[in-house]
Specification:
This protein has two helices and 21 strands. By secondary structure, it is mostly beta strands. It folds into two domains: 2-130, Metal Binding Protein, Guanine Nucleotide Exchange Factor, Chain A (Beta Complex); 149-262, Metal Binding Protein, Guanine Nucleotide Exchange Factor, Chain A, CATH 2.170.150.70. The protein has a five-stranded mixed beta sheet with strand order 8-9-4-3-10. Strands 19-20-14-13-21 form a five-stranded mixed beta sheet. A three-stranded antiparallel beta sheet has the order 1-2-5, with no helix packed on it. The structure holds zinc ion (ZN) (3 copies).
């Protein structure tokens, strides 16, 4: 039995095997909802899945004709996808507590993978769903890139933004908060100065959730689809963009892993990037 929860702790669930597979999905819908390079799902038999808290606190969004996704109303964290017609639940592995009996076995939808993310492990890669899944993926519109501008949008598309110029840093964060907020192995965030950032539409749909016990850690998501959105902090003059919601290729690649002491046990870092066990030094030293 393993259990999981959203970032704010309202949405909780328990899941029991037998678990037979674990999959990293790189499709654009997973990237946008989670704001991460890919989502990892632990499929479980429906009989083994149980909401233990506040199922009513979910916002649901029809992301395609067949697929309904949901996330926490308060913190936006992606919730398990329950599929009664397939007699299964797809549980995001990022927030799961306890040792899982297996590790990811394949990458799916690498045909729509983020251009800024390199797969460096040796797991099998499928362009879309492997044939044995018996279902088809959904194509999404692409956005034309403009020089010097990186743009993105939420899962439902009602909120869109762009950032102009060079980024300060791009990093993979393995902290427990990011794993809960993103429902993924890790978050990948790009940091800009706040003045480089602008909302193009739907800013009124962007909801902030600040972790009560944290000094700054705040996540932003779309009220309608719970998809990840950038967090704009005008006081600290920083805009933190979850790279998964980007529609165009940013001008840089992930430069390091941070908080690796808090990494998910089932996720192996297989690239050569530097690893910081805890927090990195402050981006802007105090004056
Ligand atoms: Zn929550
Ligand atoms: Zn997906
Ligand atoms: Zn949205």
């Amino acid at each position: 039995m393993v259990s999981g929860s959203c970032l704010c702790g309202t949405v909780t669930y328990e899941v029991q095997g037998p678990f037979t597979s674990m999959v990293n999905c790189h499709c654009s819908m997973c990237r946008k909802q989670h704001g991460a390079p890919f989502a990892t799902f632990l499929p479980a038999p429906l009989a083994g899945f149980r909401w233990t808290g506040a199922e009513a606190a979910l916002v649901t969004f029809q992301s395609s004709t067949r697929s309904v996704r949901s996330g926490c109303k308060t913190c936006g964290a992606p919730a398990p996808i329950v599929l009664p017609e397939r007699n299964m639940a797809l549980v995001p592995a990022g927030p799961l507590e306890g040792d899982l009996p297996l590790t990811p076995q394949m990458h799916i939808f690498v045909g729509s993978k983020a251009p800024w993310y390199a797969i460096t492990d040796g797991l099998p890669q499928h362009e879309a769903f492997p044939p044995e899944f018996g279902v088809q993926g959904v194509e999404r519109p692409t956005v034309d890139a403009r020089p010097g501008v990186t743009s993105g949008s939420c899962l439902c598309g009602e909120v869109a933004f762009e950032v102009e110029g060079d980024a300060l840093i791009m990093q993979n964060c393995h902290c427990t908060r990011c794993r809960r907020a993103r429902g993924a192995a890790h978050g990948t965030n790009i940091f800009y100065r706040a003045e480089q950032f602008r909302w193009l539409r739907g800013a009124e749909l962007a909801v902030d959730y600040k972790i009560p016990e944290a000094k700054h850690h705040t996540v932003t998501f779309c009220r309608r689809c719970t998809g990840a959105l950038p967090r704009v902090d005008t006081v600290r003059n920083v805009a933190v963009v979850p790279a998964g919601c980007l529609d165009t290729d940013p001008p840089l690649r992930p430069q390091r892993h941070i908080f690796t002491a808090h990494k998910a046990a089932w996720f192996a870092i297989t690239d050569e990037l530097p690893q910081l066990p805890e927090a990195p030094p402050p981006l802007f030293p105090r004056t």
